Every structure is written in structure tokens, then in C-alpha cells.
Amino acid sequence: MMRRREFITLLGSAAAWPLATRAQQGGRMRRIGFLSGTPGDDPQSQARNAAFLQGLGELGWKVGRNLQIDYRWDAARIRGHVAELLALAPEVILAAGSSAVVQLHAATRTVPIVFVQVTDPVGSGFVPALARPGGNITGFTLFEFGISAKWIELLKEVAPRVTRVAVLLDSTAPTGFGQLGAILSVAPSLGVQISPINIRDRTEIEAAVMAFARGSSDGLIALPGPLTLTYREEIIALAARQKLPAVYPYRYQVTGGGLICYGPDELEHYRQAAGYVDRILKGEKVGDLPVQAATKYELVINLKTAKALGLDVPASVLARADEVIE
To answer: For residue 120, which of 194, 220, 224, 195 has the smallest C-alpha distance?
Structure first.
């Protein structure tokens, strides 16, 4: 007969196990896919994956123990990657970026897909409604098109002399033209002329930006996308060399030397996406999980860059900043 003290000790030990870990012990290995249009060796791609793995780990999932993840990276090979992933029969696929979702949406209406890094999933035709997607796709949307208007407004606030702005459009990001449209809608009221630049590679970026830049009245906006991530160092260096005040969508572009950004915490969406993957693996229907939008946007300013550009950032902008890099 088990003594009372032994029983209490055993019960206490069992209670100390993480609930999610106990739920997965003894279960079969589960398989998911991860599809991204960015290079896998890019530090920001690695940070995004780490955030996703962190979220999974907090829910009891560990690669090699109860989970297998098949990774595919690089926008240039998206279509082939989709075929490869589907042939591996994953139970759910995390799709990073609109270009990845476009190809997956065309290839399957049955495999559950959780997306991140997507703008306007309804307008893109991925889901019929945010609250109840209903099909095999759901996820986390980063930007409302209206946020794009904020970028040019911010640029004008920190650099009032700017009257010409180049907008870098990533040719692999389908929603770039919608973001450009939002910028064009407010540019006349700010006295700004917009010059869209559709980019496909590093050489094209340099040639186009250098051809655009004329003097102190010029500025730059880099729209989100795989190419503006991949070539962010080149874009930031070009902006510095040509003395272009520039606005970016993500914090890492400002910590890397960019002037200012206004955008969401993208890594938080990868952690949240892990929660949706967990719920799908546990039997919930993907179509019942609502698409979630970013609820907080961060304003980050690099004062060192501002000083190099000869800009005096207004106190009203500094007061609104979530982070100031000095």
C-alpha cells in the first residue's frame, strides 16, 4: 500500500510538470511547414523563427521531441517551395508574407495555413472576413493601409523641407501598391511629390535611388517586403550617403542606422502565430480562428542619424516616441 506521504509527494511532482508538456508526452510526432520569402540566414529571419519557436516551446512543443518543422526560404523559389512542402503532408503551414500566402492559396484549400507579415488579407482574397475566415487560412495582419499615410506625415514632421519622396516598392510584395495608394492620397495636402521605385534586386535599388536624389528637398520611404528586408543595409547606407531622411516600417531598420520607423512588433505576431498552430494541432478548425490585427504601433527615432542629416527632430515627435536611440 502506498503511504500517504509518498502519495502526496508523487501528486506534487505530477502537478509540477508543465501542462502542455504532459499533454504531448507519449503522442506522435507532429509535422508543420514554415514558408518565408526572406533568406533563412538573415538575422531578422532568424529572430522571427526564434520568436515562433519560443511561442511553441511555451505551449509544450519541441522540435525533435514531438514536433518536426520543414523550412523553406527565399521569395525567388516560392512556387517550388510550396509544391515541396505540400508533398511532405504537413498538418499546418506558417506562411510569412503575402507572396507565400498567394502561392499557398492557389495550391491548396485544405491544408491549414497561418499567416504573418500580411497586409489586407480580405482585399487580397485570402479570407472573406477577418472575424470568421471560414476557409483554410487565418493569421495576423501587420498593417492597415492607413498606416502608410502616417509614414509620409512623419517624414514631413521630422524633415519639413522635404517636397519630393521616393517610395521603394518591393516587387515581391503584392500589397505594396495599396500602401503606395494611401501615401499618394495624402501627399498633395503635404506639398509632396511622390516617385514610386519598383525594386527587384540590389543593383536596381542603388541605381534608382541615386538617379532620384537631387538635394535637400528629397526624402525616402521604404515599404515593407522581403527585398527591403534583405537589402536593408544597402538602403540605409544609400539614404545616409545621399542625405535622404527616410522612414521605415520596422524597429530593426532604425537600430541598424535608419532615421525613423512607425510599425508593429512583428516578432510578437510570430509568438502569437505559434498559439494558432498549437490550437490547430489540437483540433480547432482554422476557419473558426479570427484574423488578428496589430493593436500597438511603435515610433522609434535614431537621433544619431538625425544629427548626421542635419535634422532637429521636433519635441512633439520625440514626446510621442516609444524609443529614442542616441
So the answer is: 224
Q: For the chain, what is the mean pLDDT? A: 90
CATH domain 145-263+298-325 topology = Rossmann fold (3.40.50)
CATH code of the domain made up of 19-142+266-293: 3.40.50.2300
Q: Which three cell numbers stand for residue 114?
A: 497561418
Q: What are phi and psi of 32, to 5 degrees?
A: -130, 165
CA 11, 13, 19, 22 dihedral sign is negative
Q: Are 269 and 294 within 8 A, CB to CB?
A: yes
Domains 19-142+266-293 and 145-263+298-325 share a fold: yes
DSSP state of 201: S
Q: Which residues contact 321 (CB under 8 A, 6 or more apart)?
A: 299, 300, 301
Q: What's the angle, vertex CA 10, arms to CA 4 and CA 14, rounded to 5?
A: 145
Angle between helices 145-158 and 176-186 (to 10 degrees): 50
At 215-264, the pLDDT tens digits run 899 999 999 988 888 899 999 999 999 999 999 999 999 999 999 999 99
Element (H, E) at 96: strand 92-96
Q: Where are the domains of the chain?
A: 19-142+266-293, 145-263+298-325
Characterize 273-293 residue by residue with b for buried, 16 or more Cβ atoms within 10 angstroms of its Cβ, and e for exposed. bbebbbbbbeeeebbebebee
CA distance 154 to 240: 18
Q: How many helices (H) and strands (E) does the chain have?
A: 14, 13
Closest CA to 251 of 287, 308, 302, 300: 300
Residue 18 has a pLDDT of 42
Quick check: 301 and 167 in contact, CB under 8 A? Answer: no
- Cell numbers that stand for 210 in this block: 541615386
For residues 199 and 171, the answer to whether their CB atoms sit within 8 Å is: yes
The amino acid at residue 47 is A
DSSP 208-264: HHHHH--STTEEEEE--SHHHHHTHHHHHHHHHHTT--EEESSHHHHHTT-SEEEE-
